Amino acid sequence: MKELNVALIGYKFMGKAHTNMWIKTPLFFDVDAKPVLKVICGRHEAPLKAFASRWGWQETETDWRKVVARKDIDIVDIALPQNLHYEIAMEAAKAGKHIFCEKPIAMTSVQAKEMLDTAEKHKVVHYVNHNYRRCPAVRLAKRLLTEGRIGRIFHWRGAYLQSWITDPNFPLTWHLRKETAGSGPHGDLNSHSIDLARYLIGDIKSVSCMTANFIKERPLPDEVAAGTFSGVSKGTEKGQVTVEDAAFMLAEFQNGALGSFEASRFATGRKNYNYFEIYGSEGAVIFNLERMNELLFYSNKDPDYAQGFRNILATEGVHDYVGNWWPPGHIIGYEHEFIHAAVDFLNAITRGTPIEPNFRDGFMEMKVLEAGLDSAVSGKKIDIAY
Ligand code: SOE
């Protein structure tokens, strides 16, 4: 089988998810090319080498410019904080590498547009990893919407709630600093909800948003040890939190539907509650990532004596991707969404099939995110000009 050499930049939470994805994809799916774990890149040599030997990366490198410049690399995989996406993706596109990039795509929509134009100019496959699109239950929601079973859409109600920084002693990791993350849960979590809403309902016309900051100072982190959800402080010295702690946004869709988006890391008890409801003239669907194999579906077409939300376990082979895993009812998890993305990404390279969300989607989403933050500052509703 043809081989494609991967350079992965980043080796923490997403680095682990992506490494697992490249390994498992050709084992479970019939792709035309086998990803090779060629080189992994990160700033800190000792943990990088330990990661590489545990997961089977052939080589390590501490300078991302060197890996992007290598002739033998086909795919550059960016699993890093937002502030590093733009520069690496631009260099990778110019070097003719296909790009698998973590979300949100960049720090600004201007950067995102340049990334899109450059990737298109150099004819490389470009993908922004909103993994939740490839959850089979989400694909089922899309199918029901496409088949008209929900009818005309009236409402999107989305929430992405976590609680990992409610402790005031959780350190000031990169997620909590504007210069590295761009924004707080708005960019980190609302970005996923916006992507799902765009995928399922359509583009957003205007937004109105409020943000809040509950804890303004935190202890500085031990940069090497700290990761997402697992901060380690360096000492008692504190620094300023420069992103919002929660962002609640209302939106009008171009098709007339009305939506709400809630993103917070202060939702006590919620771990990774990525939730949406869609209400239409013929029915409704409800999805909750923490029950990710299931989709609730309500249909007006059911006889009146049997109406109610039915719980569909999306593990039968009729659902997207799951036929390649286990027999029905043998549920799948978080990591599988990444593998589904890699299948489509590899097919985009070898078969020329389209892949979404791509840098165009990343750009559209950045416009919505930016409008949300502008609205939070001005207190006004913002019409989005794409
Ligand atoms: C942290 O908030 C995080 O890891 C996000 O960055 C991911 O995108 C989300 O999928 C889970 O939570």
- Name the helicity range: 25-40%
Q: How many strands, what sense, and barrel or not for the largest sheet?
A: 9 strands, mixed
Coarse morphology? globular
**Proportion in β-strands:** 25-35%
**Ends apart, CA distance between termini:** 42 Å
Provide mean pLDDT, rounded. 97
**What is the fold-level CATH name, i.e. the topology of the largest domain?**
Dihydrodipicolinate Reductase, domain 2
Order of helices and strands: EHEHEHEHEHEHEHHEEEEEEEEEHHE
Question: Could you say what the CATH architecture of the largest domain is?
Answer: 2-Layer Sandwich
Number of strands: 17
Tell me the strand order in the biggest sheet. Answer: 16-15-14-13-7-12-11-8-17
What name goes with the CATH superfamily of the largest domain? Dihydrodipicolinate Reductase, domain 2
Provide a count of the helices: 10
Gyration radius over CA: 21 Å
Quaternary status of these chains?
Answer: single chain
Ligand list: alpha-L-sorbopyranose
CATH class of the largest domain: Alpha Beta
Taken together, the total number of domains comes to: 2
Residue stretches low in confidence (pLDDT < 50, at least 5 long) are none
